[in-house]
Structure formats: structure tokens, C-alpha cells
Amino acid sequence: MPDVRVLPCTLALFGALGDLALRKLFPALYQLDRENLLHRDTRVLALARDEGAPAEHLATLEQRLRLAVPAKEWDDVVWQRFRERLDYLSMDFLDPQAYVGLREAVDDELPLVAYFATPASVFGGICENLAAAGLAERTRVVLEKPIGHDLESSREVNEAVARFFPESRIYRIDHYLGKETVQNLIALRFANSLFETQWNQNHISHVEITVAEKVGIEGRWGYFDQAGQLRDMVQNHLLQLLCLIAMDPPSDLSADSIRDEKVKVLRALEPIPAEQLASRVVRGQYTAGFSDGKAVPGYLEEEHANRDSDAETFVALRVDIRNWRWSGVPFYLRTGKRMPQKLSQIVIHFKEPPHYIFAPEQRSLISNRLIIRLQPDEGISLQVMTKDQGLGKGMQLRTGPLQLSFSETYHAARIPDAYERLLLEVTQGNQYLFVRKDEVEFAWKWCDQLIAGWERLSEAPKPYPAGSWGPVASVALVARDGRSWYGDF
Amino acid sequence: MSTPATPTSCDILVFGGTGDLALHKLLPALYRLHREDRLPADTRIFALARSALDNAAFLALAERNVRAVVARSEFAAEQWKGFAARLDYLAMDASQSADFGRLARHLKSSEGRVLVHYLATSPSLFAPIAQNLSIAGLAGPQARIVLEKPLGHSLDSARAINQSIGRVFDESRVFRIDHYLGKETVQNLMALRFANALFEPVWRAAHIDHVQISVNETLGVENRGGYYDHAGAMRDMVQNHLLQLLCLVAMEAPVRFDAEAVRNEKLKVLQALKPISGLDVQDKTVRGQYAAGRIGGQEVPAYYFEKNVDNDSDTETFVALQAEVENWRWAGVPFYLRTGKRMARKCSEIVIQFKPVPHSLIDGGGGPANRLWIRLQPEERISVQLMAKTPGKGMQLEPVELDLNLAEALSRNKRRWDAYERLLLDVIEGDSTLFMRRDEVEAAWGWVDPILAGWREHYQSPRPYPAGSNGPEQAQLLLELQGRRWLE
């Protein structure tokens, strides 16, 4: 483990009894404590609306934590130490009077980190109340997605927060940026001359980015049906991955150098004109099918379903980046629920050699790919052509993967969860794994024109059976350009 | 050249038929080809040597040697019987033209049959054999001649051999063997370079810092002391195997994958090699000779105590040198070649060391630049070394390897075939892509001769190195003076 400087703070967790906090944030904090990455003076304030004895809520928290942390990683000594850091405070986040108690609970000597695991609609109110209570000075605020549902509402949220906090103390979370392999993208691209030399339209034919989920809606009706897959996944995770793949080298690893380069990519995204929506974008909605061999219901048949919903659970689209480096290289993005497997993967397809000298019937085989697997089984694979074994006539070729599997190479090392890394970076004051205001807004601006186009078309999402790779139209999307999705079927 | 085709009838004449090469390499390879039905249906194999053996005695000798070489599961009595039926032995003296008349009569009619004359003999016999074959009417348009190394001892002697052979056989019917070219991974080099768009843009001086080519053996000279003491590692290994590997790494893409196109490109590399002559040999080359040491826990003797070796021999058993290819693609990129006997490990390997990234984003530098490793033996593999993020917290980098172990990747059903099987099949089919052309051989000697002359003129004696080490310390200096080091 590399030496990491550990700084103290008070973490005020708004929405402490919500699903995100119990499933992700507290387990991550526990793990950080276990690895001695929480300063001994760091305190965690669990804040929620629920009244009642703090001990009761902390007991609930302990129960949930034991479920979330793998048994072999549970240590009662660590838990006791963690428990000593914890306090529970009941409060109504929109009631200014409630902040008097918070004010008293906060140690003036320690920087405050306010984590908003709440709907974005209350972000502004919380910020105003923190400021009114004298708690905004030096405080960092951490914002979970979604930040609005379009450019306008996103701006409202950002402006409400910006009234009280400068950008340098706002940390917008996209948990994908905390994943090990996403961070490896930066190392892969900028510490290896072998790839950077060829990272442009001269050598790359096209790029695929897939984020597939096996599960369906899982009870998130209130939020998801209003959002759809584009807002839920493309606007944030997929565009962030696209930025990391497509960005120019920053001059250093500071937050703003990296985020400046990402914003340049977002600004270069070509809007998809209304007349091209049908050929460049596919929306889907899953119907009844099979998952792990069991019958599963369609989206409109899920428990508590909105029967006439036209929310999309699948999006595939072709994105073009209008800049010197990428002009002419399509980026195919694909994301969906109820896919055959959970898979997040980036595939860089290199162009064919300029002149082919081997047996003509093998010409279609020839192409190199760099496959970056984000999950499951994080790893990197470089597909090269090698000679097939045998005494056959001429030079018979085959594809061979040069690969690195993190689980094999680093089998002894535990790869931290995304939230562990992100929480650590917040406590350290590092912003490069967080999303900047202009990034969010350019991403919304680009998505908004798509959504507006769909609304004008009034086209229903195409059905696809649960357990498939999405509507047949998504295959046609790529096939129209003479290509196919890597590894499907 | 016309497209190679498999003939239906073939006579293979092995001169030196009772020698080590024939018994340990050629007969096992031919047996395997027979076993897999890859030989033309009507193939006859004639072993020719001076030993006064009758056919039965030769067959017994052949069976004993083939059994010793091929895996038990590959040897079956029925198959051996079928193979033995193809085999014939004729005692003859290859230096006597009268014996060739007898040979011709023994072959009976060779009309319409491909004739393969495999010269597993001393190179001093190459010219007389070719001449005698011609006199006996065995060098017609369907006849091919296969020459094993060494092809001469210098440019002059190589030229003399080539001229003598050339008077009888035109170039398209001469097959000069470097068995390295028959190895799977050497052929993979061609596929790697020209079937992958990924590598070509970085395969040049702008992106490559240097190339290392090593062919190291743990064995000593064993029974070859008499030949070896006269040749040395430069003639035995560098002039052929290592220069061939250098050609495959450095050559331009051929217009087609055929014999003439490929060999034209290799020749261009040899012609672009910067000469090393005179005092340059002291800066650019290192000679070594192994002293007593330990390998695999066993004490082994020094070179000059080996059988048939002169006690005050100054023959080199190790060479390291810096070659330069003076052309547009490679100017300024050193190619470090290294070969030795009684080294710590048996390893044949090519390492392409790329240049570092132009600007490091990580404090404290970006670490080692990328490398491409091509391991020829043991355990054929290809590996790319990259920088990746160290797992866990923080943004530190560390080298990782993306690798393909060719032996593992290939189907377990497929048998690992031997270089000689590939090469013999190509001779029968008339495909000379994996064989050396006359001008290649002469260009290689043309580059090697001035180094040998420089060593003599400047009394550059081999440096001793203990058996089981990585060679003389001066070999490290060769790279260290330029801020580099041998990798493994």
C-alpha cells in the first residue's frame, strides 16, 4: 500500500439512513478505518429526519454494516473504533432551527465535509441553512447524482449551491470515476508511449463503450421512470468514460487540468440532429424474458409499474467528436438494464494494416483491439494477430490476447470500492475524480437536445426481451457502418 | 517464382545419412511428416554415407534414433514399417564421381520426380557434390539442393561455395537452411509485424530506443569442439541466426508474403548495416570464452579443456555487439546482439524497448518506458510491458505485463512441430521464403568479416567468463556506457 497522507475532518452525512448511505457510504468508511485511512480525530455525523434514540439508529446501522461488509473483513476492534467516531442527529434538512444542534456537534477546529446523499431538490436548502448557521466557511460539499434532470434544472441546482460554496469546495460524485480501472485509464493513456502515439483518427477505427446491467428496475420507480436510461447512465457514467478515452493529455494531474481536458471533449460532442435520430440512436424498453434461466417480468409488468410509461431502459447511440484528434471516429455507446450479464467495457478498435500481405481469405480477421474491462474481472487485454500453430500452407493467422487480469496479477491485494477512494479523496481535498460544474452542464446540454428530439418524434422505445443485448435496431445501428458490437452472441 | 505446389512423387537424398544431423533431426522430422501423411504419396528416402552398412543395419540404426527422438506416443510399429519401406541406404563416397553414377543407377528412373539433395555434410563437400550430381544427370530442373550451415567461413569462401553451387543449380533451386527460420515464434514475428496495424506506427526510430536480441545457451560445445574451435560464436551464431532475427525485426513490409519479396526486404537490412571495422571493434564488440563454473548445480569445465579444443585456443564462445541499421527507419537505434554458450539460462529473446512518454504527468517520473518482449525459447511468448496504476489508493504507477503464452494459448490437441518438419515440407513444395538467399548470405559475411579481421588486427582476445554467468562484464559496459542494460 502506497503511503497516503491522512487528514482529519468532520463528515456530516445528510441522508444517513437512506439506501446509498447504508449500502455504500458506511461500508466504505468502515473499510477506510480498517486500513487506517481515517485520521484518529475524524468524526462522522449521521444525519437523518428519523427521530428517536441515537443508539437505536446506530444499532440499525451496525446491522446493515455487518451485512454489507464481507465476513473475513469484519473486525470487532475496528468496529468499536469506528463506533466511537459516530454520532446520530435527527433533523429536518430544510428547517434552519435544526442546524443549531448541528452547529454544536461540529468541532470548529476540523474542516467540515457535508455529504448530500439526498435528492438534489434539497441541495440548495441545505447549503443555505449551513451558511446561515455559520457552517459554510471552509466546508466541502459532496453532491450525489442526479444533479437535475436537464440543463435548466441542473443549472438551478448548481447555482443554488454556488451561492454559498465556491467550485473549489464542491465535489460532484460519479462513482464510476472511483473505480480502479477507470483510474487506470489515465495511467494507461498517459504513461505509455505505445498507445498515446496511436490514440487518434489515423489509427483508430472506432470505439465501443458498453455499460450493461443484468438487473431490472429494482424498485427505483419513483426516480427511474422520470429519468430513463439516458439520464440515469449516459449523461454521467458513459460520457465520463468517453471523456477519459477521448481527452487530450493534461499538463499535470491536478483536478482542473484533467477536468479542463474533459470539458474540451464535451464541448466537441456533435449534437445529433433530429433527422438523424432514427439512424444514430436506439431506445429500448425490456419486456418479459429470462435472467439466469428464470422468467422475469417486463418493465411495464414490474411491481408498482406505471403501465403506460415510455421510459427507456436501453440506449445505444453513435457519438461523433468534432476535433482534430477524433474526426471520423465513431464512438458507439450502449447501456441497458436486463442485459445478459453485468458488463462495463471499453473496446478500442484499431484500423487494419494499410497493405495486406497474407492469405486473402483471412483479411476479414485482421484488426487489433484494446479491451478495457471495468467490471466484472477488471483487466486489460490487447488483441493481436499471431501465427496459428501448424504446418499448413502459408501463414495462417489467429487472434491472441495479450492480457492482464487484475484479480490474477494482484490476487493478494484488495481492490477498494469506488466510494472508498472517492471518500478518501474528499478528505484529502483532491477534486480530480469529481465532476465540475461545466462538465455537468455541457453533458446535460448535449443530452437535452437528444431528449427534445425524442419528444418531437413521439416514438415509443423498442421492446427487447429481458436477457438479450437490447433491441435488434442497436445491431443495425452499428451494422449500418459495417461493424458489430464486440463479443456479442 | 511460381506458386509452390505439392509434388506427387519425390526422392529425398540425404548426403551424410549416418551423421548426427540426419539421425537426430532429419529422420525424426521425416518420420513425423510421414506419420501425418504430409509427405507426397510416392516418396523415397535415400540415406547416403561412407559407412559400409547394409540396408537392414541402416534401418536398425535409423529406428533406434527415431525412437529416441520422437515421443513414445508418436511411435507406432505399423507406422514405422510404412516409413521404413520408404527408406533405402547406399554406401558411397561423396567425393568420388564414379559413385554418383552408381547412385543414378540405384535411383532408376527419376523422370517426373522431384529430387531433393540434402547436404548434411561438411561444407568442403558442397561443391564436389553439386558438380558430381550434374555429371550424373541428377541436377535437372526438378532437382533441389539443401545446404546446411556453415556456408563458408568468410565472404570469400562463401562466395566460392555459392559460385560452385550456382554453376549447377539456379538460385530458385537452392535452399540454404537456418533452422531458426523454421521456428514457430520466428515466424510469429512476421505475423506480429505485418498483420497488426497496432505495432507498425511505432516501429521506427522516433519511438524505439533500442532493440536487444539474445540467443543464449547453457550447453557447451559438447562434441562439436573440432568444428567450433575453428568457427567461434560469431560464425556459428551471429552471422546466421542473430542476423536473421535482426532482419525480421528491422525489415520493411514486403509487398507479398512470398520468397522473393520477403528476402528482398531482408537483404535491404543487411545492406544497411553499418560496418564495424578497425578499432571500432573495441568499442562496439565484446568477445568472451567460458571458464570453469557451475550450471544447474553441476561443475562444468572451461572451454579449453573441452574435447578437441586447442588448449591455448582464443576462439570466442560469447559475442555481444552493437549493430546499427543506417536507413530512414532505424538511424540512431542501436541493435544489441548477444549470444553465448554456458550461459546462466537457455533463452532466445527479442526485446523492443520503446522511448519514454514525452512528458510525465506523475511526480517523480513515469517509470520505465514500454517494452515488447518476444520470447523464442523456452516457452514461446509475446509480452507487452506497460505502466498501470498501482492498485489501491493514490496515483502511483508500476509496470505490468500483458502477455500471451503461446504454448498455453494454443490448443492442447495440437502437437508442437519441429523446425525441420516445416523446412523439409517447404523444400518439397518448393517454397523458399524461410530459406536464405545467396545475396543474403554474402551480405551477412560481408558485414561479419571486417569484425573478425578487426579482432585479429587488434589482438582482441576473448574475455573469460565463468560458466553459468551472463557473460563477460565488458558486455554490461557495452550498454551501460550508453545508459542502458541487458534485460535478463
Automatic annotation (TrEMBL), chain B:
Ligand binding (substrate): H179, K183, E217, D236, K341, K346
Span of domain Glucose-6-phosphate dehydrogenase C-terminal: 190-486
Pathway: Carbohydrate degradation; pentose phosphate pathway; D-ribulose 5-phosphate from D-glucose 6-phosphate (oxidative stage): step 1/3
Source species taxonomy: Bacteria, Pseudomonadati, Pseudomonadota, Gammaproteobacteria, Pseudomonadales
EC class name: oxidoreductase
NCBIfam families given in the database record: PRK12853.1-3, zwf
Protein name: Glucose-6-phosphate 1-dehydrogenase
Record InterPro entries: G6P_DH, G6P_DH_AS, G6P_DH_C, G6P_DH_NAD-bd, NAD(P)-bd_dom_sf
CC annotations in GO: cytosol
